[in-house]
Design a protein that fits this description.
By secondary structure, the protein is of the alpha+beta class. Helix content is 32%, strand content 21%. The strands form three sheets. A four-stranded mixed beta sheet has the order 3-4-5-6. The termini are far apart.
Length: 165
């Protein structure tokens, strides 16, 4: 079973005024950013996520990710998300001379990933990614993987929402 959805307490705040990270670093000349409407993770997952089984070979998953234009794959066993395999995992496997044809993804994936509700907004998800160091965020609803939001996707959503204001 996938990891629990992180507590909303540290991430969910009033949707009106967001703290400005630049101002928190001491630049008080920058006013806080205001966001009237915010993008939810639900808005950033579209289509079918790229998934594989835990016994798929590294090369199979790498080719599939490249063909689909994805930087990550959800690893599904039965109906549960058991891991996330990313470009960084592939790089680590190559650097350690893994046999890409024979090695299963399960040996290289991130296990029991943290997952997020589709109702978390892009700002809060971005903060979590900054704090955790992850680059991919699995979005799960009712135990079903809806998609994996990338750091790039979140950045695009944040910038678009600022431009809209």
């Amino acid at each position: 079973e996938a990891g629990p959805v992180p507590s909303a307490a540290p991430f969910l705040r009033d949707k009106g005024t967001r703290p400005d990270l630049r101002a928190q670093r001491g630049d008080t000349a920058i006013p806080p950013l205001k966001y009237a409407s915010w993008v939810l993770l639900r808005d950033l997952v579209a289509g079918t996520p790229f998934v594989c089984g835990p016994d798929a070979s590294l090369i199979e998953v790498a080719v599939g990710m490249a063909s689909a234009g994805h930087g990550s794959a959800g690893v599904i066993e039965g109906r549960s998300l058991v891991g996330v395999f990313t470009e960084r995992d592939l790089l680590r496997a190559v650097a350690q001379a893994a046999d890409l044809e024979e090695e299963p993804v399960r040996r290289w994936m991130g296990r029991d990933p943290d997952v997020f509700s589709p109702d978390v907004d892009a700002y809060d998800a971005s903060q979590w990614l900054l704090e955790s160091g992850y680059r991919h965020l699995p979005v799960v609803e009712d135990g079903v993987l809806l998609g994996i939001v990338s750091l790039r996707g979140l950045l695009a959503a944040v910038l678009a929402s600022i431009e809209d204001e």
